[in-house]
Design goal:
This protein is low in regular secondary structure. It is built from five helices and twelve strands. The strands form four sheets. It has a six-stranded antiparallel β-sheet with strand order 6-11-7-8-9-10. Strands 1-12 form a two-stranded parallel sheet. Helix 2 packs across helix 3. The longest helix has 21 residues. The N and C termini lie far apart (about 155 Å).
């Protein structure tokens, strides 16, 4: 089968397989030419259409097409190139390989193009011929459509893709792509010069931030804030003050993190004060870094003696400028509150008389006797009876002169009975004022017939007195009774225990002797 017949069959098959599609994207003539120029220097690659605006790997072709061979990733044949420059049947990147039509289609069909007279050909139109299975197509840039023109084309294996002058034979016909924006467009941005807010500067988006009718692309003050774009830290956002909190050269008006703490302003609880931790002590939604009352106790941080701990009363026991609410030693006695038995009362010695865990400095009953210190006659000595012998307001338990006679208990021979002369007849260490056996003979004063004279035998004397303290002693004969004439021997004052005589005195004397012995035993026991 001849090459011509093969090409004809391929063209016929493709003609049936390719239905018309929606209109290709709108393009200006300049856009098409600019896109087409990108193929220059790339290799001829039969049946393909692909190039790059950045790659220098143009590929290579050798042999005679369609039996030619190609190496590399980029290149195009004549119809693959024009289809890609025109973006038919639809928008496509130049780096994506595609070959939707052959010269047969461009010559014989009108999917997205139409035939025009050669004389009316304009920039970005194409010239095509296909005859007897052979054909060619190129992109027209300028020149005489009947003579010499400037063209962009993928010319063949030995030529590659080029831009240059060439003649146009009568076998070519002119065709024009659909949806060309055919108007004056000096900057080639697809916007007619009459409607372009920057006619000499390409700006297809026509962005105009300050709505002054002059596009941002050619406006020296895009946001209209009076600060030239080249000096404006937010060129498209009005900010005449040029405030830049974090000094990153991006104004707060257009900075999404004004304080530069890594937390976006929309989530930052202090968007103008750096606080990466986002600490918010009082959970009021305002971070501590910018909150004037971090603990929300109504006392401003500048005056608050515990700025991070709520303490409306501002109590400061030790007056050290640090409130008790955040102080570890409230009373400033050098003992941490956790270990202090009186954390609000200075007591470095930690004295605790009653060992109840509450120090004396703050204990209202230091001795733990159940009587409050305020009324306790001995606040540091347990004494629930509150005895106070001398009534001086100082209890006996802590009074060193219980009887108030001016003699200390340790030296007083009657510590509980006032006796300033300290008499002690029997020299037994117990003063006469409180001694129940003054003469120390073992017989209590109450029954002793001679309480101040030692007479443990209690031998009878005159009257109620014992012999030891009575005069006129006649030995074994006892005492003489008065005579009939009323005269008698004089005797010492005192009382006899019984009348003289062997039978009357002996029983009583025996009884008194027993009592004396009992008293002596008790004294010794004492």
């Amino acid at each position: 089968m001849s090459r011509i017949v093969q090409l004809a069959l391929v063209g016929a098959t493709l003609a049936v397989a390719l239905p018309a599609l929606a209109a290709p994207p709108a393009m200006t003539r300049d856009e098409i030419i600019a896109r087409g120029k990108g193929v220059v220097k790339f290799s001829y690659w039969w049946g393909h259409g692909r190039w790059s605006t950045t790659s220098t790997s143009h590929g290579s072709c050798s042999g005679s097409c369609p039996s030619c061979s190609h190496s590399g990733s980029y290149g195009a044949d004549c119809s693959g190139f024009v289809a890609k420059a025109w973006q038919v049947p639809s928008a496509i990147s130049v780096t994506t390989d595609s070959h939707p039509y052959s010269t047969f289609h461009f010559e014989n069909y009108s999917y997205h193009w139409n035939a025009i007279s050669r004389g009316s050909a304009k920039k970005a139109d194409a010239f095509v011929y296909n005859s007897n299975g052979a054909g060619h197509i190129f992109l027209y840039e300028s020149g005489d459509p009947w003579g010499w023109v400037t063209a962009i084309e993928c010319k063949g294996c030995s030529y590659g893709c080029v831009r240059g002058s060439r003649s146009v034979s009568s076998s070519y016909k002119a065709i024009r792509r659909d949806n060309i924006q055919d108007f004056a467009d000096k900057d080639g941005d697809g916007v007619a010069d009459g409607k372009d807010n920057c006619p000499s500067t390409k700006n297809a988006s026509q962005a105009d931030a300050d709505k002054d009718g002059k596009g941002d692309a050619c406006d020296t003050d895009d946001d209209g804030d009076g600060v030239a774009d080249d000096k404006d830290n937010c060129p498209t956002t009005k900010n005449a003050t040029q405030t830049d909190t974090d000094k990153d050269k991006k104004g707060d008006a257009c900075d999404t993190d004004d304080d530069g703490d890594g937390v976006a302003d929309t989530k930052d609880n202090c968007d103008l004060s750096a606080n990466k931790s986002q600490l918010d002590t009082d959970k009021d939604g305002k971070g501590d870094a910018c909150d004037t009352d971090d603990d929300a106790d109504t006392v401003a941080d500048a005056q608050d003696n515990c700025s991070l701990v709520k303490n409306t009363t501002q109590t400061d026991t030790d007056k050290d400028g640090k409130g008790d609410a955040c102080e570890t030693d409230d009373d400033g006695d050098g003992i941490p509150d956790a270990d202090d038995n009186c954390k609000l009362d200075g007591n470095a010695d930690q004295a605790d008389a009653d060992k109840d865990g509450t120090g004396d400095a703050c204990d209202d009953d230091d001795d733990g006797d159940g009587v409050l210190d305020a009324t306790d006659v001995c606040p540091e000595d347990p004494d629930p009876t509150q005895a106070d012998t001398d009534g001086d307001g100082q209890g006996d338990a802590c009074d060193d002169d219980r009887d108030g006679d001016g003699i200390a208990n340790a030296s007083d021979n009657c510590p509980e009975l006032s006796e300033q002369n300290q008499d002690d007849a029997d020299e037994d260490g117990v003063g006469d004022a409180c001694d129940d056996d003054l003469d120390g003979d073992g017989v209590f004063n109450a029954v002793d017939n001679c309480p101040t004279v030692v007479n443990p035998d209690q031998k009878a004397g005159i009257g109620d007195k014992g012999e030891a303290c009575s005069g006129g002693d006649r030995g074994d004969l006892g005492f003489e009774e008065p005579g009939a004439g009323g005269q008698a021997d004089e005797v010492d004052a005192g009382c006899a225990c019984t009348l003289p005589g062997p039978s009357r005195g002996q029983p009583l004397a025996g009884l008194l002797s027993v009592l004396a012995l009992i008293g002596l035993a008790r004294r010794r026991a004492r």
